[in-house]
Design goal:
Rossmann fold, alpha/beta, 5 strands, five-stranded parallel sheet, disordered N terminus
């Protein structure tokens, strides 16, 4: 049930959508997009910003070395992932550089969408809670799926081993914690049709935004 809170900051609702790896949050976000709702893809933008921002690029090189970028200037995700995989402090230091830049970029994007008159917009991010960006949002949607199903999806989609998948899962907040903090939960488990769940949330958010204008 949609409820208003003191987090409501303006006429347009800022809504986050997240979920652990393999839950299908991008698939669900795509359904909202079909409904005409703009979606800010934070993970994609983070990758773009690491290459677009000279200041951030210099900070990453200072932290990780020149191998953080290819000779062509592209962000070397394979090297970076390996460098931070077993070093929690290095991972935290890198995230402390990237997350604020993505947050600023997202805020500017939300302002543009509000000027266009959208009732609400979505911010899709894997590390929505982990990065603290949930505090900038009015409502949060968590996409959920059983771990066994998530593993099967990722093996098929990315060709990862079960060990590699579990290493990535364990780097994110537990789904149970995310669900406890969520305003809405979408079950993408193959048993509950997703589209009716999205439509129900969509109608509640549109209605909530219209009430805020009254």
């Amino acid at each position: 049930m949609f409820t208003f809170s003191n987090k409501l900051k303006g006429f347009m609702l800022k809504v986050g959508i997240t979920g652990g790896i393999g839950t299908g949050k991008s698939f669900v976000a795509g359904i909202f997009r079909v409904l005409g709702i703009p979606v800010y893809e934070a993970d994609r933008r983070a990758k773009e910003i690491t290459e677009e921002s000279p200041g951030l690029k210099k900070q990453i090189i200072d932290l990780l070395g020149t191998q953080a970028y290819t000779p062509e200037g592209k962000y070397n995700r394979v090297f970076v992932s390996r460098a931070i995989f077993t070093d929690a402090r290095l991972k935290q230091a890198l995230e402390s550089l990237i997350h604020p830049e993505v947050r600023k970029d997202g805020e500017a994007w939300f302002r543009r969408q509000e000027e266009e008159g959208h009732p609400y917009c979505l911010k899709e991010a894997a590390l929505l809670y982990e990065s603290g960006s949930d505090r900038d949002l009015d409502q949060i949607i968590v996409v959920d799926a059983p771990l066994e199903l998530r593993i099967r999806r990722l093996i098929k989609r990315d060709g990862l081993s079960e060990n590699e998948i579990m290493n990535r899962v364990n780097q994110q907040w537990a789904q149970e914690i995310k669900k406890e903090k969520a305003d809405f939960i979408i079950h993408n488990d193959g048993r509950h049709p997703v589209i009716p769940q999205v439509l129900a949330i969509h109608h509640q958010l549109v209605r909530g935004a219209s009430v805020s204008l009254g």
